[in-house]
Amino acid sequence: SSGGATKSAASGVLTVGMPNGPQTNNSNPFLATSAGASLGYRFMIYEPLVQTNPIAPSEKGTPWLADKWEWADNYQKLTVTTRSDVKWNDDKPFTAGDVAYTFNLLKDKSALNTNGLPIAGASKVSDTSAEITFSKPQFVNENKILNSFIVPEHIWKDVPDPTTFTNEKPVGTGPYTLKTFTPQTVTLSVRTSYWQDLPKVPEIQYTSYNDNSAQTTALASGAAQWSYVFMPNFETLYVNKDPKNHKIWMPAGLGIHALWLNTAKAPFNNVALRKALNMVIDREVIFQQGHSKLFPKVDNVTGIPSPAGDPFIAAEYKGKTAKVDVEGAKKVLTEAGYKLEGDALKDPSGAPVTFALTDPAGWSDYLTDLDIIKNAVKALGITAEVKTQTVDQWTTDFNSGAFDATMHWTNSGATPFEGYQNIMDAAASKPIGEPAANAQGRFNDPAATAALAAYAAAPDDAARKTNLDLLQKIFVEQVPAIPLVSSPVGAEYSTKSWIGWPTAEDPYAPPQPTQTNALQVVLRLKPATA
Amino acid sequence: MRFLLRRALFYLVTAWAAITINFMLPRMLPGDPVQAMIARFQGRLSTDAIASLYVLFGLDTESSMLSQYLTYWGNLFKGDLGLSFTYFPTPVSEVIAQSIPWTLALMGVTTVISFVLGTMIGVYAGWKRGSWIDALLPITTFFSAIPYFWLGLIAISVFAVSWGAFPAAGGYEPGLIPGFDWEFISSALYYSVLPALTVLISSIAGWILGMRNMMVTVSSEDYVTVAHAKGLPEKRVMLGYAARNAVLPSISGFALSLGFIVGGTLLVEMVFSYPGIGYVLFTGVNAKDYPLMQGIFLIITMAVLVANLLADVVYLMLDPRTRKAA
Amino acid sequence: MKSALNGKTIAGLSIMGFFVLIAIIGSWIAPYDPSAMSSDIMTPPSGAHWFGTTQTGQDIFSQVLVGARGVLVVGLVAGAIATVLSVLIGVTAGFLGGVADEFLSALSNIFLVVPALPLIIIVTSFLPDAGDFLIAFVISATGWAWGARILRAQTLSLRQRDYVEAARATGERTWRLIVFEVLPNLTAIIASSFVGTVIFAVLSVITLSFIGVASVSNWNWGTILFWAQNAQALAQGAWWWFIPAGLCIALLGTALALINFGIDEYVNPRLRTSAGGSKVKMRVGFTPVLRQEGGRS
Amino acid sequence: MTPVLEIRDLSVDYGQGEGAVHAVSSVNLVLNRGEVLGLAGESGSGKSTLAYAMTRLLPPPGIITGGEVLHHGRDKPAPVDVLGLSPKQLRSFRWNDIAIVFQGAMNSLNPVSTVASQLEDIYRAHRPEMSRAQRTKRSAELLRLVGISADRLGSYPHQLSGGMRQRVMIAMALALDPEIIIMDEPTTALDVVMQRQILEQMMRLREELGFSVLFITHDISLLVEFSDRIAIMYAGRIVEQAASEDMYRASSHPYSKGLLGSFPALHGPRRPLTGIPGSPPDMRSVPSGCPFHPRCPSAFDVCEREIPVLEKLSGTNGDSSRSVACWLNTPSLSGHPGVGAT
Amino acid sequence: MTGEVVLAARGVTKHFPVARKGRQVLTRQPRAVHAVDDVSFDLRRGHVTALVGESGSGKSTVARLLAQLYPLTSGDIVLNDVPTKVKRGKSFRAYCKQVQMIFQDPFASLNPVHTIRYHLTRALRVHHGRVKGEELEKGLASLLERVNLTPPERFLDKYPHELSGGQRQRVAIARALGADPTVLLADEPVSMLDVSIRLGVLNLLRDLKERLHLAILYITHDIASARYFADTTMVMYAGQVIEGGDSETVTQEPAHPYTQLLIRSAPDPERAHNGVPTVTTAPGEPPSLISPPPGCRFAPRCPYAAEKCRTATPPRFDLGESHYAACWLYDSKTTDEHPRRDTVEVGA
Ligand SMILES: Nc1ncnc2c1ncn2[C@@H]1O[C@H](COP(=O)(O)OP(=O)(O)OP(=O)(O)O)[C@@H](O)[C@H]1O
Ligand SMILES: Nc1ncnc2c1ncn2[C@@H]1O[C@H](COP(=O)(O)OP(=O)(O)OP(=O)(O)O)[C@@H](O)[C@H]1O
Ligand SMILES: [Mg+2]
Ligand SMILES: [Mg+2]
């Protein structure tokens, strides 16, 4: 209720909401299933070595628990120098030993190693220095490694099984401690001392709502001040409820949502059709109707989102955006031997071109996208059909290549590499019928596979750039997938009680409350009245 | 006695069947909690996590169906329902223990109120058959035909969003710690008004109708006429003779519905973001969380069985005819 | 035969008939393709769009018209399957008695105890490509037990009736006794349990669609509500997206309930409300005295 | 012979308007103090309807459409019309003055409460001044009166045999020492041994307590044995009324004759049974004129056209209580000008 | 042919098992309702045998046993001198072609959803194959004519509820006649009918007996109608036949104390007006059939009960031409003096 909102503002509480349903008392930071991860408060308690910015991944990170970090052996060995003035919230000092312990923990418990880091070993060099070695060059994983949060050795070493540890009294280096836990609301309160300036927010209240609609209602009424939730028509539902204070900012990360095409079978085994399809999809409509303007559109032809990915875009594609060009598409098709007979497009062999667009039932944004695409290809004389599946079936079909075209996301990382790898890495692909880990569209261009391998192992930036440029060229020319929107690292927030939020003008961090960077945001917040 | 023995056998067989169904169902159906989890995170959980999750959930080892079944029973007898995947590594029993009181309180109280109120109106409607009160029936029927999620959403939009008189979501004021203090209880009550009303409105018609029809039927029984002939006050005839007999069939229905409150609240809880077990079950279904599904299903089934047992006992108490002659 | 048709039943049958008509011709008379998007985004009801449009400019009136079929097909198919099941199991159990009865009763009791909606959700959410018929089948699989129980009880009492016994004494075979002597007398109860299952199935399929478990690309009223809820139509003030489908469901449910009233009153004539136009208030236990001038002779 | 209950021109319909069933039409009947008046007739002739109408207990859609039911109270100066009583007066009139033993005694007891509570209910409603102990004591006495031991007070109806239930009903009827007891086929469900036990007990109690009985049954030989006077109903009308001996020896109405000729006698010579041809009329479409004429062996033209009125008949032994509604007994029939507006 | 025995009961016994309760489950002592115990009699062609007794004495059970609707516990049913036991199927149909039953309640024994035509057609088809068309119509008409429902067209297409009780019972009889049976078991065929109609149905049955030489078992609780209608009368008490013989003899000179009680209790218009004193009837109720008293089952209520009556079951004692009674009073060995029947009077 609005009553709740005024009360929390007055008492200096920051109210965060997430639409994730009731939680259980679980603050194990490693588990995505924990309340800490689901609501995001783990980042107020556990801190990373370095804060990297996913919306500006090419920037160097902000030193956090680590003062300095150095790579050696072509990104196979990392030496970290830790701060010496940091204390755990049980007043024990933080040392490099904790860093070594944490990485060894990840190495030993593969269940906790959600990033799949190939850790070879970690050791404490001194109280302020630790050394971590990897079995492969880790350039592409750099941010994931630096972003890893550190847990206290003195607590965790006595935990019998860290994978089933619910960590109800989390001990971290962050500025907040867990005050109370209820399945609906988790309250954090600020510590008395912290290695930086103490944040101005004395208490943070994380409330879990059961669904997007409840979360939206809470945001609109002011009961929740900060959240990341998908809402259709955010102007009406949120911003217009208090235009002065209700803000929404959805900066793009490097992860994208694309229409994956099955390039190993008809009709999309013909590159001309893939190109033509790419030319008739109106990304503006997808952005506005499919994703309600919340997911930033990806219109650079390379599929690299702006502005996060701008530094990576090859010179020849800078500023080249995908545009709707139905005539152009028809030309491409005609040149490739396609014919329009009556209303129906026939492929060079004379068979009508049809395909199914599949996605899970209930995934409304994807399904809307597919509908838009279905309507768009009518202009080419193609009859497409939107089919829904259960999530399981869809996942299975996606991995085994049993689809024509489907909306799906890509992996993301600190560079566009992960995205390209996800779409084009034939090395991790399998024939149709067997589950593939990458290139589920069965795209198989040896040049692309080689470039991906070379990029990951490249010794220097020049080599990386060469390979990335090549990947972009292949992507643009072969159209293995059609990028449409990016995954935002955004949030809705209210400036009514708290100011200092990141904005497009001051993009010091992504605003999402469940990201590592949320701590950076909270540290900058100030009461609006002060 | 024989009646009770038969019932006991029925309960045992049903419980066994239900537990076995619980065990078989998730295993017969396709699906994978890890994939479900990846899908739920839509790109925020990278594909690298897959391997780690299989290890985490212990799905990387295989054992025969029979040995799983036996282990399942063994664990059941120890009261161990396993660990939930969705809320890993929280034990299923804990997840259930945390959510079930909400459902029980909200739905239990609402069901009781609905039954009592509906039955009372039904008694009156049946007694005053042919009067204006008959016009009430189509109206209540209409309300009961509305799916209650729809009614709930409208209620939220009208009473919570537009008017702001009631909270739109949750079980209590965020920040309060559940406990037996007035602040919490009053808040919980306040938060339960809208969901309770919705359930009440859509469920009361059934009771009214059932009771009315029974009243009408019973009203023409000879013993009611005799009661009139005896010159008893009308209230006494209505309650002591007609209603007392007419209510018997409703009792078992009531007990059954008490059992089903655990299972039938999913939509109320979804719509009102209520922290009850229905929503948790739904989450579990979406997440392919077998242990959680099994656990909740088991609880629901047991609740229904217990309610049935209760119905039998109450019936035995209320209807002397089922009691054995002295 | 006594006419079971009273005002309520007629109203129920008319509404039902109307919806059945819509279900049959809905997709032909729909002014637009229900999935087709247009540039009229979120417009309130107007001459062009009687029930307004959705977020993506789809015509809600067309969706409601087309969506009737899904609801009715699932409702009627599920009702039919469940009724057949309940007749087969209930009547057989009641008539044969003995071990067969014990077994079949236990079976229906188990199905009664297993909570239906969660089970349906679980099963449908796992089924690949859950089409209307599959959903109808799942619903009927959980919905037959109640009818079977009632039918069994009724058969048990019918089996004792003299006319069954008399037919047996005439030399009729067992199957003839069941089919020609017992079944015809169960018609009202079968009809009532059919209507009851249809109500249950309609609400179930709508619920399934609403929570996105069933396929949302086949239009039905639940699907409309699913999309409306997804777009938070009410919060956006787009009541027109929400109201028509909900009202249709409620109307259909009411119609079915009214038909059931009629059946109830047919089975139990005491339930009949006195025919309209009566000026005298009937009161149980106090017979009205209405002295007519002159009286009759 | 003072009347205790006088029924004048009582008419009862089930339903209204076109489809109404005229179950009782212009019945006149007098019940005298202390007598047993038998009411006989075929099933559907309106016996129960008449009984219920006297106390206004007809089930819907029964409506009393005319007439009066005058009750001459023991210590009331003027007769009161039962049909004019307010609900409150009616409630106090019931059971205090008229008690009923119903046709289906098996179903007349509330299955879910004990005999005691159903007995005591009466006192609680009519004698609020009685203490709990008094009520219990009185209930026990009543049971003893009908030959049931008092420890049956705590029993539920289903724990009693049919005969016992019927006796409980009789005990209940006696609870307030009423002036009139209506017994509507009180023994049809019982076998003859039990029937006799109960009826004889009833007659003994009547001797002791002096109430009047309206005894309804279709078993005319039972009536002849137990009642003082007999009225015979056919199609909602009284067709004959006479002292029971007269009725037995020399009934005048062809229907009464037929009825009496339908019972085989157990003793004496095997007299031939005549029976009555045809079947009882459908009350929805009662034949015009005398309703019995289609079955009457001696019907003639007037019978088809005009309804005979119940007329006093100078009895064989000068008994004036005898009357019959049959054109055969109207000597002035030839003088009748045919149809008259009635 | 008149007088030959068609169907005979030989020591027919029926015990209905009773659900065991509570502790009895452990003791495993089987319990049963001794509904019919050791009943023997003959049904002869062209002869009406009445079976009289109060409610619950086992009359209907005897009828159903004879109709082979229940399996026997022990004893034999002898059809045309052949002991017959049939359960279902062909042999059952062959049996019921000979032996047909009429039920007590004509309102309940006709299926309300079927027309008269259906009922009768089935009766014809079951026993005479697939009769069709003309032949069927003729068969139906003759059936209805035999029970005096004329003209047949008026009744054929009616539903049971459109007929009066007497007409319905006639249809039920017509249905039984459809099989061309030799034996009719009429279980209280008129007790649910109006007094004035009863006679018609009884006269019809008598007429059938005379014309078709049927053997009729007439079950009733009204002993007066047995006198009127039946040639021989048997009296049942608590599952046993306690007296039997020529109807006139049984009703006019009852031998068994129970029969005497029954006859005294029957309403008698003469009694009131001839100054016959009202009778005090025997107290008590019929015994429990689950654990019937040892010896004579009437002993607990019998004013003459001697020690022997309470211990030994009395056999039948012949009292004259076809008249017998199962009562120790008539055992010439125990009593020298044959008690005069008319002296055996209760109360006094
Ligand atoms: N509720 C009713 N609605 C319509 N008609 C009724 C109703 N109750 C009785 N009747 C009709 O009224 C007539 C008289 O019925 P009533 O019960 O008084 O007869 P009765 O003489 O008591 O018969 P019985 O000997 O069977 O008890 C019958 O024709 C019956 O059909
Ligand atoms: N199917 C049965 N199962 C158990 N007991 C039965 C069954 N049928 C009859 N009985 C019992 O057998 C006894 C005799 O019953 P039966 O119906 O033969 O009596 P009846 O003389 O025909 O009585 P009525 O005059 O009431 O028809 C009764 O005590 C009855 O309860
Ligand atoms: Mg009556
Ligand atoms: Mg019987």
UniProtKB/TrEMBL annotation, chain B:
CDD domains: TM_PBP2
Predominant location: membrane
Keyword Membrane found: yes
InterPro entries the UniProt entry points to: MetI-like (IPR000515), MetI-like_sf (IPR035906)
Gene3D superfamilies recorded: MetI-like
Subcellular localization, as worded in the UniProt entry: Cell membrane; Membrane
Membrane-related topology note: Multi-pass membrane protein
Name used for this protein in its record: ABC transporter permease
Species per Swiss-Prot/TrEMBL record: Umezawaea endophytica
Upper classification of the organism: Bacteria, Bacillati, Actinomycetota, Actinomycetes, Pseudonocardiales
From TrEMBL, chain C:
CDD domains linked: TM_PBP2
Broad class of the protein's primary localization: membrane
Residue ranges of coiled coil: none
Annotated Gene3D superfamilies: MetI-like
Transmembrane residue ranges: 12-30, 71-96, 103-127, 133-151, 186-219, 239-263
Compartments in which it is found: Cell membrane
GO cellular component terms, semicolon-separated: plasma membrane
Domain of life: Bacteria
Protein topology in the membrane: Multi-pass membrane protein
Keyword terms: Cell membrane, Membrane, Transmembrane, Transmembrane helix, Transport
GO MF entries: dipeptide transmembrane transporter activity
InterPro entries (alphabetical): BP-dependent_transpt_permease (IPR050366), MetI-like (IPR000515), MetI-like_sf (IPR035906), OppC_N (IPR025966)
Residues covered by the ABC transmembrane type-1 domain: 72-260
Assigned protein family: Belongs to the binding-protein-dependent transport system permease family.
Protein name: ABC transporter permease
Source organism: Umezawaea endophytica
Lineage, opening ranks: Bacteria, Bacillati, Actinomycetota, Actinomycetes, Pseudonocardiales
From TrEMBL, chain D:
Molecular-function GO terms, alphabetical: ATP binding; ATP hydrolysis activity
SMART domains given in the database record: AAA
Keywords, sorted A to Z: ATP-binding, Cell membrane, Membrane, Nucleotide-binding, Transport
Annotated organism of origin: Umezawaea endophytica
GO CC annotations on file: plasma membrane
Membrane topology: Peripheral membrane protein
Residue ranges annotated for the ABC transporter domain, each copy included: 5-260
InterPro entries: AAA+_ATPase, ABC_Ni/Peptide_Import, ABC_transporter-like_ATP-bd, ABC_transporter-like_CS, Oligopep_ABC_C, P-loop_NTPase
Main localization category: membrane
Subcellular location: Cell membrane
A GO biological-process term: peptide transport
Pfam families, A to Z: ABC_tran, oligo_HPY
Family the entry assigns: Belongs to the ABC transporter superfamily.
Protein's name in the database: ABC transporter ATP-binding protein
From TrEMBL, chain E:
Protein's UniProt keywords contain Nucleotide-binding: yes
Similarity comment: Belongs to the ABC transporter superfamily.
One of the GO biological process terms: transmembrane transport
ABC transporter domain ranges (all copies): 20-263
PANTHER family linked: ABC TRANSPORTER, ATP-BINDING PROTEIN, TRANSPORT ATP-BINDING PROTEIN
PROSITE patterns assigned: ABC_TRANSPORTER_1 (PS00211), ABC_TRANSPORTER_2 (PS50893)
Region annotated Disordered, chain positions: 269-292
Protein name as annotated: ABC transporter ATP-binding protein
Superkingdom, natural source: Bacteria
Organism: Umezawaea endophytica
Keywords: ATP-binding, Nucleotide-binding, Transport
Listed InterPro entries: AAA+_ATPase, ABC_transp_ATP-bind, ABC_transporter-like_ATP-bd, ABC_transporter-like_CS, Oligopep_ABC_C, P-loop_NTPase
Gene3D superfamilies in the record: P-loop containing nucleotide triphosphate hydrolases (3.40.50.300)
